[in-house]
DNA sequence: ATGACTGCAAAGCCTTTGCACGCAA
DNA sequence: TTGCGTGCAAAGGCTTTGCAGTCAT
């Protein structure tokens, strides 16, 4: 679940950050690059593992601070794949996104996209009194290996 | 979001607990009663607020332990309404359930049910390699008051 | 009498905050 | 030069665990 497929998200992110008035700091850039390498959700602590031993090392606090800023700029989105802990995923500028199935036993994840699901959620959102801006859908169960 | 509507869930829960070999402890019973009073998701800390000043008081650890047991017996279900913290909801024996919209600003919740949504999720679940046993759907946005 | 149940306090995660130093602009 | 950005360490929440006393059976 790594092996980059950066569709230009990094550039988009760096440009958005600059436009928002942020300076180009080493830690923040390192977090952008790390996120670009992940196709699926990542936790702050996973990023910390990756970036801690860099030279120069990136501090854990900087990772949390960067993620908070990125989320506010809608560059990443928090997903509820990891119960009780944060996990984030890139937001693609074209709005394309997927959802997740998570294994109760080992945490393995599988992703899916579905138009009927999105259509239903869109319709429901319009009918609520709330102004809905995002949605989480997570399926939970056992992966094939853990089911045996 | 309180004001009881216990459809027999308490009795069901107590019977299930007894059948599973649990003794009838005061703390556990108090947690069952507290859950029966809530129609929507509750956090362990909300329950603690309610049960701490009882006589005799219920300890926080007992609440967490009870919730863990109830979840394993499928009497309650963890829902992801409160980011970064746990929240639980009764599982109705007939399988009837609803989902939630949560306000980013104030945490207020609105619930909904939708057959097309459930149908889509059921179909998707069958198509996965995972054995899916539950699903979370949470819409997020601003409630009417916070949107102004 | 036996072992489950409970409350308290301590310990464990994850996350946030305070602070002094360093670096971008 | 200014003040944003960063790392470290400390502090904050929520949750879990250890332990000794209590209670259900």
Description:
The structure is a homodimer of 148-residue chains. By secondary structure, chain A is an alpha+beta fold. Chain A folds into two domains: 91 residues, Arc Repressor Mutant, subunit A; 51 residues, 2-Layer Sandwich (Dna Ligase, domain 1), CATH 3.30.1490.190. Helices cover 42% and strands 18% of the residues of chain A. In chain A, the strands form two sheets. Chain A has a three-stranded mixed beta sheet. Chain A has a two-stranded antiparallel sheet with strand order 1-2. The longest helix of chain A has 13 residues. Chains A and B meet through helix 5 and strand 5 of A and helix 5 and strand 5 of B. The first copy, chain A, binds a DNA duplex (25 and 25 nucleotides) through helix 2 and helix 4.
Q: How many distinct folded domains of chain A? A: 2
Rg for CA atoms of chain A: 17 Å
Into which percent range does the helicity of residues of chain A fall? 40-55%
Structural class of chain A: alpha+beta
The H-level CATH homologous superfamily of the largest domain in chain A, spelled out, is Winged helix-like DNA-binding domain superfamily/Winged helix DNA-binding domain
Low-confidence stretches of chain A: none
Key terms for this structure?
5 strands; 3-stranded mixed beta sheet; 2 domains; 148 residues; alpha+beta; DNA-binding; Dna Ligase, domain 1; homodimer; two-stranded antiparallel ribbon; 6 helices; Arc Repressor Mutant, subunit A
List the helices and strands and how they pair.
2 copies of one chain form a homodimer.
Chain A: H1 9-19, H2 26-37, H3 44-52, H4 60-72, E1 76-78, E2 88-90, E3 99-103, E4 109-112, H5 115-127, E5 131-142, H6 144-147
Parallel strand pairs in A: 3-5
Antiparallel strand pairs in A: 1-2, 3-4
Helix pairs in contact in A: 1-2, 3-4
Chain A binds a DNA duplex (25 and 25 nucleotides) through residues 22-28, 43-45, 56-62, 64-65, 68, 84-86.
